[in-house]
Amino acid sequence: ALVVGSTAGEICGTQVFDDSLVATALEFRSAGVRCARVALSDAGSAARAGAMLAEGLVSPGLRHVFLLSDGLSVNGSELVSGMTSGLPAGVSVTGGLCGDGARFERTYACLDEFAENEGVVGVGFYGDSLRIGFGSLAGWDSFGLERRVTRSRGNVVYEFDGQPALDLYERYLGEQAKDLPASGLLFPLTVRATREEPGVVRTILAVDKLARSLTYAGDVPTGHHARLMRANFDRLVEGAGGAARAAKLDDADIAVLVSCVGRKLVLKQRVEEEVESVRGVLGPNPLLAGFYSYGEMCPFIPSARCELHNQTMTITTISER
Q1: Pairing relation of β-strands 62-69 and 119-126?
Q2: Can you give the pTM of this predicted structure?
């Protein structure tokens, strides 16, 4: 099977490229691989697309699913929820939302042939010989007041603290607000149900100036707490290393890196430092490959369910005993 996705940057070894094609081939001694694709127009919703993919991939021996999705027309939280609800206990899920540089115009997730319609691809890995590791960390600093999400629907936020959502971003971003949604990548939102929880990070995908609303890559529920974040160069690089430590397997053959385009825009000429940080933790043996995305999918911890993240470095390691 040939799985293809558009990106906001390509990772090959410890180098990061733009407008290039990176090909990675996988061959296993005894493990199996099966792929499936669902068009979002056929599914009707992101949650249903995830459930349909799960149904097509569930088979004896399934250990892990890697998801590759259209990055603009899908609610990543619903996609992950639909997928995980249809999988047996113990099957892990990681992946990413396809990118389009910083243009936010069109993304593609294809299986075996080019497809114009927006879709989601799932790659299932099967067999007792497989070991899967994964980790995801961010590295952004919070700033400003913590706000309450007072009106939202799914991944669309209309109000923070009773005020139009777009107004908040325009006030904090100043001149950079004219470049939304791209400039929003530099100021992600951390969202949590209670102040005691670690929360998830959300990135803007679209702006509706008439409704004064913001569309994020994943759910931002009404009643949750939200706070803006900004970059800390050193902590972004340290976060990549932390994700590698969580994902590390002593005998990993490959590490698939999915990092957010927002991190790339902040790090600029230092972007390869976060990939080099991963190499420093994982050592010389695993092949490194991956891409910059509009959203990353990974559980917080091995025993947890997969969630959609933004602005993280997410790493999936695979080995075959």
Answers
A1: antiparallel
A2: 0.87
